[in-house]
Design goal:
Length: 299
């Protein structure tokens, strides 16, 4: 069951990435990021008030936001700081790079998660899983050659390093999620609500320095409906992902790989919507990534 929940998370993540590309075009990254997280927070807010006044009903619906100790709040703040850093780097890169380059690099995240799962959680991969992961990494390297044809030098372009950093931080957060869900026994909606709350606070501090004091930046900001859509789609994706992680048999290394199937939406549909270059050539490494994911699932 947890694998199917992972595929649902991948579906919503793919749609989330398409909306995110539209939201950041011509906009400052920080206010867009704040708008998306704040939208997700507002989406979850009725569950919080419902948990206060209609506790039994929310428990029966498995949407109850539980009370947690201050120590647990501290653990969630750490996750918020990690993901805020990852998103800031990823949004900056997405603003300056084609989505068909950014998304495959992000697909290397399972490799970092794979290593962490072995070292931290002692998850044991088999032969096919090794082949699948290395096939994913090799396919990402093929994208670098295609990227040069679009004027993107992978060694000198700072946005490439930004998306690599975002990928590493995102993978670290994925490993941390297993600790929060399984060891601290947080339910998905409780983790999501407080995560959004603390991330909003972090972004408010950043905006108070980089955006609010500058009227010209505020006037240049263009609100788009996709800003709200990104927040709601992310909440949906994380909910199914955390539900999958609640299963004690769930392997974080496999869930991380399953989530990468989102690139089918991002590369194929995104390439058509944003009219990016070399779409056919990008299908070759895309196939490699999908085969790698398929091997992991088959194993």
């Amino acid at each position: 069951m947890w694998m199917y929940l992972g595929l649902l998370a991948a579906l919503f993540l793919g749609l989330h990435n398409l909306c995110k590309k539209h939201a950041v075009q011509g906009n400052e990254v920080f206010p867009v990021l704040f708008g998306t997280i704040f939208s997700g927070f507002l989406f979850l807010l009725p569950l919080y008030f419902g948990s206060l006044f209609y506790e039994e009903q929310l428990i029966n619906m498995q949407l109850y936001i539980a009370e947690i100790p201050w120590k647990t709040h501290g653990f969630i703040v750490i996750k918020s700081a990690i993901m805020a850093s990852s998103w800031i780097l990823a949004y900056q890169a997405l603003k300056h790079l084609p989505i068909t380059i950014v998304t495959p690099i992000r697909s290397a995240g399972p490799f970092f998660t794979f290593i962490g799962a072995i070292l931290i959680y002692q998850e044991k991969p088999n032969f096919l899983q090794w082949i699948g992961f290395f096939l994913i990494i090799f396919s990402v390297l093929l994208y670098s050659r295609i990227g040069k044809k679009e004027g993107i030098n992978f060694k000198r372009n700072k946005w490439i390093f930004a998306i690599i950093g975002a990928t590493f931080l995102g993978a670290s957060s994925g490993l941390y999620d297993k600790f929060l869900i399984q060891s601290l026994e947080l339910n998905p909606q409780t983790l999501q609500f407080w995560f959004c709350f603390y991330t909003v606070l972090i972004l408010l501090v950043i905006l108070s320095v980089t955006w609010f004091p500058y009227p010209e930046k505020r006037k240049a900001f263009k609100f788009r409906w996709t800003i709200i859509a990104v927040g709601v789609l992310l909440v949906a994706a994380d909910y199914f992902y955390f539900k999958a992680l609640q299963d004690p048999d769930a392997l974080i290394m496999l869930l991380s790989a399953i989530k990468r199937s989102q690139i089918l939406i991002a590369v194929v549909i995104g390439g058509l919507v944003f009219k990016e270059q070399n779409k056919r050539k990008k299908l070759v490494p895309l196939a490699g990534i999908l085969i790698g994911v398929g091997l992991i699932l088959y194993s």
